Amino acid sequence: MNRPLFLLLVSVCVCVAARGAEANPNTVYVNNLVGDDSFDGLSANPVEGTKKGPVRTIVKAFILVKPSGKVEIANTGCVYKEKCTMSRGGGTPENPTVIEGNDAVISGLGVMPPEKWNMVKEGVYETEFYPMSNSLKGNKEYDYWIGSPQIWWIDGKEGVNCKSYGEMEAKENGFFWDKWKKKATVHLPAGKKIADVTVEIPVHGTSILINTDYVVVKNLKSIFSWNDGFDTHNNSKNVVFKNCVAVGNCGQAFSNHDLCTSTYENCAGIGCASSGACDVNSSTVLYRNCVFANNTFEAGVYATEYAKITMENCLIVGNRPFEQIWQISNSSLSLFNCVIIGAKDNPRPILRMENGTVYMNQCTILDAQCLTELNEKNTGSLRIINSIIGRMEKPFLKIPSETRLPHITLDFNAYHGTPGVDFKGKLFNAENWLEYQKTCKLDVNSEWIEPLLTGKMNAQLPADSPLRKKGKFYGQPTRIGADLPACVWELYFNTKDLRPTPTGIE
User: Fold this and answer.
1) Backbone phi, psi, residue 302, to 5°
2) What percent of the chain has pLDDT over 70?
3) Cis peptide before 25, with omega less than 30 degrees from 0?
4) How confident is the model at residue 263 (pLDDT cuts 50, 70, 90)?
5) Which residues fall within 8 angstroms of residue 438, CB to CB, at 6 or more apart?
């Protein structure tokens, strides 16, 4: 090759590569310390004497960003106190709009100003408060805030969560939520007036709500939202959330609505006052490598209406006081390679089913009263294959009659540490397994065996176990039980004990 021409080609290639590596020219920068919403948002730092510089709020950036652009949120160490909705500025399949959070925290907590409080009597004040905690709001057993997460703060310190108005009156810094009156009441320290203290409660709604197509949301944390952490609405298509964590929100960690299609990867919903994930209407959602732990007043995850959820490599653990999984109405849930762990002191099954479908393949399901109790009224289809089910106090499955049998598929499973299967009031287990197989035509290739679970819930089947060869998926031999990627366990141990505070996450 002619040397000058060769050098010219190399030079051109280098220039093209350099241009490809440049930052998106349509990047809007956000910085809640040095930014100002009167700036143009096109520079990461303010330019003295001009209007060039980062905006202060994410909300403003969502207004400014153009289609297929980028929002770069600075992690300043100070929480962003906002409700952020993106209704325009979506991207394309080739160039989605990107929201880069850099592990910044969005908080729904806000100072309730003195003028928002009414004095009931000396030292006792009330304000309007009705968070989006759906199941809790409709539950007749609890007419107070459940206390987890902690949402009451006074002068930067935890307020006392009280279960009655009388208890609140008797305790300084006591808070009581009367959900029927939709009011929160606080008892201040002796001699204090509401103008003398700083009271913080959740006042901002969903931290990130996407109402447009082709958006990627990355590396953000949500705390204390009055509603949910991360949501989609308005039939949004191909919205992706990566490395997002929702902790201690009043609603769900993640929720999807309408005809939205969404994907969540390496995300965690921890200790929210509703479920970790709630998908409704006809949304279609994929959760991959996600964790749903210790959420406090709904299932760990659930689908309702005609929503379709797929979960791959997910961990669902310790959610209470209800089931770990809800399949409600005609929705469908498919779980592949998931670990679902309840708690033996939780009186609910692992799964609540209605009229849709639940499919579990290569799952490990442990530590609960039972797997599920089917009934005549609901006709949902349950299919569990290549899975481990064990350590349960009651029969893992209760089948009321022959009419439910056509809607059940169980096979290639390993059972242990449970009394067995209840069919029409008769108990079947290892002792009369052949009779059960002939009677119910289920579990033809399943067996009762100790799977020797390791610390990560992976199964080490005995060398002579028939299940080592009998597990099947589309006709091919396969593993029995779950084998979660290391990144999922790392995500769990890094997030399960997170505690939100007014200044961030501890």
Assistant:
1) -160, 155
2) 90
3) no
4) very high
5) none
Mean pLDDT for the chain? 91
Kindly give, in sequence order, each residue whose CB lies less than 8 Å from that of residue 251, ignoring residues fewer than 6 positions away.
131, 132, 133, 134, 206, 225, 226, 227, 228, 229, 272, 273, 274
Question: What pLDDT digit, counting tens, does each position of 21-31 carry?
Answer: 344 578 999 99
3-state helix, strand, coil in the chain (%, to 5): 15, 35, 50
Return d(Cα 176, Cα 174) in angstroms, integer.
7
**DSSP-derived 3-state class of residue 259:** coil
pLDDT at 12 over 70: no
Secondary structure (3-state) at 53: coil
DSSP character at residue 322: S
**Structure token digits, residue 412:** 């290639």
Which amino acid appears at position 356 of this protein? G
Residue 64 CA to its chain's centroid (Å) = 29
Under 8 Å CB-to-CB from 71, ≥6 apart: which residues?
27, 28, 30, 58, 61, 62, 65, 97, 98, 99, 100
- Distance in angstroms (rounded) separating the CA atoms of residues 57 and 50: 19
Under 8 Å between Cβ of 446 and 473: no
Amino acid letter, 248: G
Give the three-class secondary structure for 65.
Answer: coil
pLDDT of residue 11: 38
Rounded-to-integer distance, Cα 352 and Cα 375, Å: 11
Distances 229 to 89, 204, 206, 308, 474 between C-alpha atoms, Å? 21, 11, 5, 20, 38
List Cβ neighbours of 434 (8 Å cut-off, separation of 6 or more): none
User: Would you list the DSSP string of 127-156?
Assistant: EE-----HHHHH-SS--S---SS---EETT
Q: Is the pLDDT of residue 252 over 60?
A: yes
Residues 6+ positions from 437 with CB-CB distance below 8 Å = 443, 444
**What is the arithmetic mean of pLDDT over 34-40?**
97
How big is the chain, counted in residues? 506
Q: 378 vs 345, which has greater pLDDT?
A: 378
Asked if residue 429 lies in contact with residue 420, where contact means CB atoms within 8 angstroms, the answer is yes
The per-residue pLDDT for range 454-474, each reduced to its tens digit, is: 766 766 666 666 565 555 544
Provide the H-helix boundaries in 265-399. none
